[in-house]
Structure formats: structure tokens, C-alpha cells
């Protein structure tokens, strides 16, 4: 491996956004008198994209309209000045100093992705933002990651991908990148089961510098 690119999921990886998503989905369930818990979110929603979520959870309703409403409520809750995941700006600084390319690879709608990156002050750090719904297949298919690699002109084996969900981890691992799990909402064992080669708590984890040093070495 000759490390050339860092690829980041967004929700739960570059910022802690799950509490907002959990709350908004809670409103949808409550409005319909349906039982809801964080376990429901974890098992049925986390890491999936809207085209799958809404037809499955609310059959017979207008899935597109529901998704539009849900994302508008999410954006209303996400305020400018929201902190990024600890250590994320510093890792991006390191990447810039090392000449590593960077990209965001997310199943979030583009309007949400732009809003989140602006809210955490990192929008200007990314020229490449790949949206799952704009690919023929979103995560857990590896296509969004492969598209990011194509745009950055890098090989899979020269990339690190950071993911926090099992669905996203499957996509990252299948792309051929070295997949690192960010344990912001899912326990390490589940991320390893989905293909993580290593896990960190966030980007300040003391294990991360050693991983980067090892992966910088040709042939790692």
C-alpha cells in the first residue's frame, strides 16, 4: 500500500448526527402511533438510504414525500457551529500536508451532505462528494467508493475508508480500501463482522497515528 487518499462517510463519521436522525424518525413513528426505540433505528434504519427505508417502514405512503419531509426536519435541527467528530480537522490537516486526496462518500441526499459539511465547518475541505443516490447503486454496494476513487484517480489498495455503520462498512471493505470503523454508534464487533480491518473511537484515538504510519509504508 502507498497511502494516497482518505475517504470519509459523513453521518456518524465526520460528525455525530445519529441523535438528530433518531429524534426525527421518532416523530414519524409517534405521529403514526407506531412503537419506536433506538434499537429500531439501529436495526432498521442506520446506514440505509431513504429509497429503502420509507417504503419498508411506511408502506402505502408516498415514500418520496416522506423522505423530503424527514430530511427537512433533520436540517432544521442541525445548527451552524456543530462540532465535527473529534480529531477530524486535524486529520484533514495531516492529509493536506502529506498530499493525500480526500473525499466524502455518503448515502445522505446531496442537500443534507452540503448542509452537514457547512454546519461543521468542513465544506471547503472536500472537492469530491459522492452521493449514493446519484450512483446506480448506493451502499452497501461498493460503487460509491469506487466512484470516489475514480474521481480522485487512485487505486483501491492506496485508500483508507472510514465508516461508522455496518452497511457502509460492507461497501468500504468490498471496494478494496483499507476499511477503518469509527465506533460512534455501533460496537466494534459488528463493524469487524462487516469488514473493518481496524476500529477507532474517533479521530483522536491513540491507535490511529500508528495505523497511518504503518499504511504509509509501501507494501503495507
From TrEMBL:
Annotated family: Belongs to the HAD-like hydrolase superfamily. CbbY/CbbZ/Gph/YieH family.
UniProt protein name: Haloacid dehalogenase superfamily, subfamily IA, variant 3 with third motif having DD or ED/haloacid dehalogenase superfamily, subfamily IA, variant 1 with third motif having Dx(3-4)D or Dx(3-4)E
UniProt entry keywords in alphabetical sequence: Carbohydrate metabolism, Magnesium, Metal-binding
InterPro entries in UniProt: Beta-PGM-like, HAD-like_sf, HAD-SF_hydro_IA, HAD_2, HAD_sf, PGP-like_dom2
UniProt key word Transmembrane: no
Tagged with keyword NADP: no
Upper lineage: Bacteria, Pseudomonadati, Pseudomonadota, Alphaproteobacteria, Rhodobacterales
Cofactor: Mg(2+)
UniProt-recorded Gene Ontology molecular function terms: catalytic activity; metal ion binding
A Pfam family of this chain: HAD_2
Gene3D superfamilies, sorted: HAD superfamily/HAD-like, Putative phosphatase, domain 2
Amino acid at each position: 500500500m502507498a497511502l494516497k487518499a482518505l475517504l470519509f462517510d459523513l453521518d456518524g463519521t465526520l460528525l455525530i448526527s445519529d441523535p438528530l436522525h433518531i429524534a426525527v424518525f421518532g416523530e414519524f413513528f409517534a405521529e403514526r402511533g407506531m412503537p419506536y426505540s433506538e434499537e429500531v433505528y439501529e436495526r432498521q434504519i442506520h446506514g440505509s438510504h431513504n429509497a429503502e427505508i420509507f417504503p419498508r417502514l411506511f408502506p402505502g405512503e408516498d415514500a418520496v414525500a416522506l423522505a423530503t419531509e424527514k430530511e427537512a426536519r433533520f436540517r432544521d435541527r442541525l445548527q451552524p457551529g456543530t462540532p465535527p467528530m473529534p480529531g477530524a480537522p486535524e486529520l484533514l490537516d495531516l492529509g493536506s500536508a502529506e498530499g493525500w486526496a480526500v473525499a466524502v462518500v455518503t448515502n445522505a441526499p446531496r442537500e443534507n451532505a452540503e448542509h452537514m459539511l457547512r454546519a461543521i465547518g468542513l465544506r471547503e475541505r472536500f472537492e469530491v462528494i459522492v452521493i449514493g443516490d446519484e450512483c446506480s447503486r448506493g451502499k452497501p454496494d461498493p460503487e460509491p467508493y469506487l466512484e470516489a476513487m475514480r474521481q480522485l484517480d487512485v487505486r483501491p489498495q492506496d485508500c483508507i475508508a472510514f465508516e461508522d455503520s455496518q452497511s457502509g462498512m460492507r461497501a468500504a471493505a468490498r471496494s478494496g480500501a483499507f476499511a477503518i470503523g469509527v465506533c460512534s454508534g455501533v460496537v466494534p464487533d459488528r463493524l469487524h463482522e462487516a469488514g473493518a480491518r481496524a476500529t477507532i473511537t474517533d479521530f483522536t484515538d491513540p491507535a490511529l497515528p500508528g495505523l497511518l504510519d504503518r499504511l504509509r509504508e509501501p507494501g503495507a
